[in-house]
Amino acid sequence: MIYFAHRGASALQVQNTTGAFALARRQGASCYELDIHLTADGQLVVHHDYSLLATAGKDRLIKDLSSAQLRDYPLNNPFSKEPVYVALLEEVLPLVEPGLHLLNIEIKNDDNRYPGIEKKLWRFLQTEFPQILPKILFSSFDYGTLVRIRELDKSARIGLLTRSFRVSEALALQAESVHMNYTRFTPETARICRENGLKLYLYTVNDPPLAKRLEEQGTDGIFTDRIDWFV
Question: Least buried of 2, 3, 150, 209, by fewest C-beta within 10 Å?
């Protein structure tokens, strides 16, 4: 069973921030999940939503802001008075690299909102972090994004992130895993994945007894906000 620190230790620190990933590592994480976007000046940044509304109280789109302008929008921090900001991907990767087993990078790119983000990400990793590239699992709800990742490199590790699982889509991508909400899980899904050589990872599970039941029913891993409960 694999346990991903979902957006870092996101129940105890502001999600997807350097503090969340640093804490997850201290708690023993070796697998992580994060989300990326592209700024107006072409920087890869770690954040979940397209807008800052839920995280900073400002309805500004990341794609319309430069990486420098993001520093004008401190994120809501219920854990301390310390100001925290949207992190650059290049700031987060060194925090998770020690002892890294697997890093799931979810590319936020619905309807190809960030044209070229796949190539930008791939070249960045090849140039700046080639040592961890084999440990990165790319996922996205946008199927075309995953197709473009596969076209960039036939050896890329891909996880099909889906709300409506079709094994044919995973096989066409040569995916290694399927990612879905645990509420959509059925033992039949686990059976189909197993028969086709696919791992099945479910989000977001913060209950150890539930995680145990899912494992017994054929789940290979979970994404959790409380990595400290599972490692």
Answer: 209
Catalytic residue among 6, 37, 47, 179: 6
6 belongs to the catalytic site: yes
Q: Is 48 a catalytic residue?
A: yes
DSSP letter string, 145-193: HHHHHHHH-TT-EEEEE-SS--HHHHHHHT-SEEEEEGGG--HHHHHHH
- Which of 37, 47, 48, 179 is catalytic? The answer is 48
Superfamily of domain 2-229: Phosphatidylinositol (PI) phosphodiesterase (3.20.20.190)
- Structural domain boundaries of the chain? 2-229
